[in-house]
Amino acid sequence: MRKDHRPYYVKRWYNQYQKWYARYFLAPQFEYFGRGLTFMKPWHVEVFGGPVYLGDYTTVIATSDRNVRFTIWPVWMGQGRIEIGNYCLICPGTRIMSATSVTMGEGCMTAQSVSISDSDWHDIYDRSKPVGSTQAVTIGNNVWIGDSAIVCKGVTIGDNAVIGAGSIVVKDIPANAIAAGNPASVIKYLDPDRPMRTRKDWLSDPAKLARDFEIIDRDLMKNNTMIGWFRSLLFPRKGD
User: Fold this and answer.
1) Is residue 26 within 8 Å of 18, Cβ to Cβ?
2) Global pTM?
3) N or C: which end of the chain has fewer CB within 10 A?
4) What pLDDT, in 10s, does the model give residues 158-173?
5) Catalytic: 44?
6) What is the pLDDT of residues 11-25, one digit of tens each?
């Protein structure tokens, strides 16, 4: 549909239900479940093992065809951890897998279908052996990882770096670099003279941001009715 036909109060109720679902069903599965989190379709977020830390004011978006998965299968007892920093954005289909450690800094963004793993998950010569070679992955602050990119074991990505769509990252990427390709390599650097606004900046006043979104939603949905919403679902027409 081109337009959300729901009455405003229905959307507000639905958003409250998503928050309740996340707190009731997801929060117990995390070692740390941050303040001010936003979930879209939290019933499509899966957590296997632990510990998993999810930072404050992070947004996690999942869909029915692209679940978000946090998976820990430790190589030894007491190992394996996933840490997602504050103000991050995790988009549909993102998979983060750890046998040792995957750490993501503040304000990072993963686009759709990103895969991050610190392990081969099988030994090269003994393929009955689980996990295989494993090395920690470290992702700095304000990193943007493009659609369907793969970040492999032992990689460090520096602050503000951008990883192009479809890239396979097998070696370190320095801060402020734009990297792309298979294997990913630096193609240019960000202009140091241009100011950068991060998700942390955007979310610096979450209460005001929530009020602004509420004003926008009320205005866009002010003429929506329950009858009109049902009509759009049962008898869609051009322009819906």
Assistant:
1) no
2) 0.93
3) N
4) 999 999 999 999 999 9
5) no
6) 999 999 999 999 999
